[in-house]
Each structure stands twice: as structure tokens, then as C-alpha cells.
Amino acid sequence: MDDVLALADDAAAADGVDPLDEATRLTLRHRPDSVRSVVDPEGFALLVGDQVSVVVRPSARSHGLGSRLLSRLLEQTSGPLVGWSHGSLPGAAALAAAHGFRPVRELWVMRRPSSLPLPVLSVPDDVTVRGFQPGDERSLLRVNAAAFAHHPEQGSLSAADLRERMAEPWFEPEGLIEAWSADGQMLGFHWTKRHSPALGEVYVVGISPAAQGRGLGKVLTALGLVHLSDVESVHLYVEATNTAAVRLYSGLGFTHEPADTHVQFARP
Q: What the protein does (predicted)?
């Protein structure tokens, strides 16, 4: 799959956005045998679970290659499928529509320069905040599953998925900030990600349903931004329909531009 990843990197450099999400890249690297693929020297179509990805080399676009690759892939499967346009790309929307996919979700990218000041927030007296420590995995998975019970991707994070991500070179235990109650229960976490010296990410913020309404989401997000304060800017991904989260992030200085929208398409 090295050629596939190299081609995806070429497309990312040209488009300014990665055509493959993190989960797909990890699957290609660690479980390539589980991926169905149609590969051409100038492009590819992949099926990982029920998710389709189609990428064409920038110099080979507008000649129908993406449609031919997708058609060949669809011949190999049946049942409901989804796919993402990473960025609001007209060509991706047209390809999806031509093959019976319709837009069903929007994921916003929100961005914040680290030069903006942060509000002064206090950690509640009965809450302890610290970085990840070995042995926290079960609590982390429990809170994640509860916080994202209705989220089709994040809520399904498994112990194996967690190990894969923690084995990535970007993982920093101190960048996985956890809130704990006095009786030893994890209340929430903010997992940060440092892509480069210039760019950081609010990777995941999860609050246990039992601890919601206490302002911990805002406190943990702000503490993560302090941890990432040495980068130039920070971005995050949020469901466009999650008005509470959008309001929280907007209050911390994050903004969204319409072009910074990822669209999920689905075919029944």
C-alpha cells in the first residue's frame, strides 16, 4: 500500500487537505489485508468497512478516472456505503451524486491562532487534572464510549485502536489531559495532537455524561490549548449540527470558513 499512500500524499499537497482520514491511513498501514481496493497508477478506490475513498492524482483529473475506479469498486460490494469529501470539493460532490451517494453530514474544521489570549478558568476544587498514566486505558475507553455513544466513528474506539494511536510518534502522555474525581473516577479528557511545530489539534474532548454541565469541557479544552501554546495555530473537527460544541469553541476563539467543511455522502 506504499504507492497508495504516496499518491494520497500528492493529492494532499495539491489540495491542501488529506484525502484520507486517520482511521483509513492506520488501516492501510496495520491491516492492509482488510482493505478492498482498485488501484491504477494515477488513482485508487478503497473500501474500508463501509467507507469508500477515491483519490486521483491531480494531473490525471477531469478525465473520468475517478468514476471508473469507483464503478469497479462498487461492483465488489453491496449494502449501505459512506464516503467523505475532505474539504468542500465540487468534483467530489459530482462524483458522489453520479453514483447514487447523497450528502448526509457536515464536519466543520475550526481554527484558532495561538496568539489569541485564553480566558482564565478554574478547575473545580473536587477535580484533579493530570496527564495520561499507564493503567488509565480502561477508564479512558469507558468515558469515550459514553461521551460519544451516538457518534459513528469516535464512539467505537477500541482498545486496539487506542494502542495504535498511542504508538504514533505524535502521542504525548502529558498531552492527553484527564480530569478525575476525588473518588478516582475519570470525568473527562482532552487529547491533544501536535502535527508539527506550527500546527496542533484539539484531537478529542470527551466528558462523561455524569459530569456534564460543570464546565469541564471548556476547562479541559483551554488546558489543552495551553499545552499547545508553542504552536502557531490549532484546529479541530466538530459536527456542524453540534451547536453546543460550536458555541464552546467559538467562545475560545475558534472560527470556521465555509471552504473548511468536510461532507459525508451515503448510499443506501
A: Catalyzes the transfer of acetyl from acetyl-CoA to desacetylmycothiol (Cys-GlcN-Ins) to form mycothiol.
Predicted structure pTM score: 0.93
Count of residues for the chain? 268
Residue 193 annotated as part of some ligand binding site: yes
Q: Where in the chain is the domain with CATH 3.40.630.30?
A: 2-107, 117-252
* Residue 106, marked binder: no
CATH class of 117-252: alpha beta
Is 203 a known ligand-binding residue?
no
Q: pLDDT tens, 124-160?
A: 999 999 999 999 999 999 999 999 999 888 989 999 9
Q: Is 214 annotated as a binding residue?
A: yes
Task: Specify the amino acid at residue 192.
Answer: T
Residue 217 annotated as binding site: yes
135 in a known ligand binding site: no
Contacts of 137 (CB under 8 A, 6+ apart): 159, 162
